[in-house]
Design brief:
heterodimer; A: 460 residues; TIM Barrel; 23 helices; 14 strands; B: 255 residues; alpha/beta; Rossmann fold; 16% strand
Chain lengths: 460, 255
């Protein structure tokens, strides 16, 4: 269907819904690379005005990628909850934005609405929202998940401890991990990106992580971020796997390029269930996403990168994950050019995921060929903390020596907690107190507990 | 003041430092990173940024490479400058029209076993620091092998896949491209080598083999040259490269 918007004597024409969404998208280099952006500032705002008048219902009848061609489109439409949708059935995209910001729309309202929303509706509304709108609405949402602890409660701010090592040296990983634990990081997960995809090497890391968690009785969970098929293999061999990781995208062909499909992911959840290692919850999956992956895999079907990203959340949602995060600035300047674009994308991703009911975290990060630096990340860090982001990464000194990019440091997590008065996950906080790493007033880095953890390495 | 200094030293549990190069045991002031570490990080980032934006010093490279007594041909990708290179990776994967003509008139119609390409990639610094030292070891091995060798193609603003187009134009069986890798904080000057059997426009990275982190304090030039020659010889023998080649047992024994 064709869309048009008239301003004075000028008529703006948009070929179809996906063209309208792309042209309404705040500018970013990836959409320019794909040739999808508006040709002028004026056309972009005209597209946003046009989009604001589209009824939400339209997204249920006009598919961006054909139903027959794409299993993600099928998943989105087949699992759409019409009852939940009734509440917003009559809204246009613009009215939906105004309603999301009104006082009557609270955490519970959004929670009950989530299955009535499609990723395309959420992407659409995000495109006409300012950064402050994205933060204010995301802040209302509370998405809580459980495995060995509880992540996502209001007033809590968790972290993935990410102690990577370029050659997967176990003592090297353990040293960074202990440093991070002393700083009170690692309540969301202790997650390693392995340098090798060799199953034995991955199993070695799983065993070591499990040993540390058992030895110190840490109420957290581990994950080695290898391909999901390797993890399933390891589970079948009885290796101690807590969370099951996979990178996912928002189109069937993007996922093909990652070597996964909905049926493989279903297998993964079943494998996790067979181990059932969670003590207080049974959410097994950990997904990572990021704008630009579909274009990079030449699998975007002419859909803009932010809408593709939101569609990935439909995939994630279907498998009831424990954690999800966008690796927002990792992909490089051809998709997100500078600090401004990375910041906007992170706020969009967090907002869209939370609205769709995901336990969303954020890898606040950049590469050395992007126009970004620590100051940009500091800004984003405070914005994400304010928006109620479930977790961020904890990388030694913000410098990942295995993946060669910069993320957030152990210190950064403590800085946000201090600045905004946020705390780690409750079970993890109790552990920190028990270990003497946090004093009774909630102050971190209490020296009483240092030695116990520092003794681990020489003794092992 | 002395009390503040003591606070600064907290969190410097040196014992952990022996196990990894990661930035651990940094110490803290309050919950923040002490100034010394903060500035040292900034300097590492500054070096990486400078490496990304450094312009390839063609004159210096020509002077060095001429010492190898082998023809050199200067080429340029479709990316006019660094800004375009960073925003349009597709342009960095193609030769500009002048370069295509140049190959056609200056090299055609010869055929080669190996097409040898050198490019700035994402770090001209890596070329400036490593290429001559590496070539001094690698070039004699390439030259003494049983293979015919194309002129050295020196490409400005090139990405890995530009090797496919050049390889096709040079009618070669295999391409090897040596280029600056995306600078990391600890290694702004790291060189990468990519080997592709059967160059063809549209080849994916799964069809290439990569040797990474070639630099003074990384993979040394001798070992890098040895690995490159092993890969070339195996790729020639099996007539393939990429994931399928990585799995052969011989290559697993490479030191």
């Amino acid at each position: 269907m064709m869309y048009k918007h008239i301003i004075g004597k000028q008529t703006f024409i948009f070929q179809d819904l996906k063209a309208l969404l792309a042209k309404a998208s705040p500018f970013r280099s990836g959409d320019a690379l794909a040739g999808l952006t508006a040709i002028s500032y004026q056309e972009r705002v005209a597209a946003q005005m046009c989009l604001a008048d589209i009824p939400l219902k339209q997204f249920l009848v006009e598919s961006l990628i054909p139903y027959e061609k794409d299993e993600i489109t099928r998943l989105i439409l087949d699992t759409h909850d019409l009852n939940a949708f009734q509440k917003i059935n009559s809204f246009t995209v613009g009215e939906f934005r105004d309603w999301l910001l009104c006082d009557a729309c609270d955490a519970l309202t959004i929670h009950e609405l989530k299955n009535g929303l499609t990723p395309e509706m959420v992407a659409a509304v995000s495109k006409i929202m300012r950064n402050q709108d994205l933060i204010l609405v995301a802040q209302k949402c509370e998405v809580v998940t459980k495995f060995r602890n509880t992540i996502g409660l209001k007033g809590r701010f968790s972290s993935r401890l990410q102690p990577n090592h370029p050659t997967d040296n176990l003592k090297g990983i353990a040293a960074s991990m202990i440093d991070g634990l002393l700083y009170g990081c690692g309540d969301a997960v202790i997650g390693i990106n392995p340098a090798s995809d060799n199953p034995e090497a991955v199993a070695g890391i799983c065993n070591m992580l499990d040993h540390v968690i058992q030895t110190f009785e840490i109420p957290t969970q581990s994950c080695v971020l290898t391909h999901v098929t390797t993890t399933i293999q390891l589970i079948n061999k009885g290796i101690p796997v807590d969370l099951i990781f996979q990178s996912i995208g928002g189109t069937e062909s993007t996922n093909q390029s990652f070597g996964v499909s909905l049926s493989i992911l279903k297998e993964a959840v079943e494998a996790g269930r067979s181990l059932n290692r969670g003590t207080i919850g049974n959410q097994y999956m950990y997904f990572e996403t990021g704008q630009g992956s579909s274009l990079s895999a030449n699998a975007h079907h002419g859909v803009d990168q932010q809408t593709c990203e939101a569609r990935a959340y439909a995939v994630a949602r279907h498998f009831n994950p424990f954690l999800v995060n966008s690796v927002v600035g990792f992909i490089g300047p051809e998709y997100l050019y500078d600090g401004k674009q990375i910041t906007r994308a992170a706020l969009e991703d967090h907002f869209c995921a939370k609205l769709l009911g995901l336990p969303m975290g954020m890898d606040i990060c950049y590469t050395n060929h992007s126009e970004a630096d620590q100051d940009d990340m500091d800004n984003l860090l405070v914005l994400m903390g304010t928006a109620g982001c479930n977790f961020i990464m904890g990388v030694p000194g913000a410098d990942d020596i295995m993946l060669s990019y910069q993320s957030t440091s152990y210190h950064d997590i403590l800085v946000v907690r201090k600045m905004l008065g946020l705390l780690p996950a409750p079970e993890f906080e109790n552990w920190l107190v028990k270990m003497g790493l946090q004093d009774n007033s909630g102050k971190p880095l209490h020296p009483i507990g240092y030695q116990t953890l520092l003794n681990y390495l020489p003794n092992e | 003041m002395s009390k503040d200094l003591k606070v600064n030293q907290e969190g410097q549990w040196v014992i952990l430092k022996t196990f990894t190069e990661a930035r651990i045991a940094l110490g803290r002031t309050g919950v923040s990173i002490p100034i010394r570490e903060s500035l040292s990080f900034k300097m590492a980032h500054a070096n990486a940024r400078d490496a990304v934006h450094e312009i390839m010093d063609t004159n210096m490279l020509l002077e060095q490479l001429n010492q190898l007594n082998h023809p050199i041909i200067q080429l340029h990708s479709k990316a006019a400058d660094r800004a375009e290179y960073l925003l349009r990776p597709d342009q960095g994967r193609k030769l500009n029209d002048t370069s295509i003509e140049k190959i056609k008139t200056e090299i055609h119609p010869e055929k080669f076993d190996i097409c040898l390409i050198i490019s700035d990639g994402l770090s001209a610094t890596a070329l400036h620091k490593n290429i001559f030292a590496l070539m001094q070891v690698l070039f004699p091995l390439l030259k003494n092998g049983a293979y015919t060798l194309s002129p050295i193609c020196l490409v400005e603003q090139g990405r890995v896949a530009i090797s496919d187009e050049i390889g096709v134009l040079c009618h070669s069986k295999i391409t090897i491209i040596l280029l600056g890798e995306r600078p990391g904080l600890s290694s702004p000057d790291s060189l990468g080598a990519y080997i592709t059997y059967g160059p063809k426009v549209g080849n994916t990275d799964a069809l290439r083999n990569c040797i990474s982190n070639i630099r003074e304090n990384g993979l040394n030039y001798q070992d890098a040259a040895y690995k490159i020659m092993m890969l070339i010889s195996e790729a020639m023998k099996l007539q393939l490269s990429g994931v399928a080649l990585k799995d052969t047992t011989l290559l697993k024994n490479i030191p």
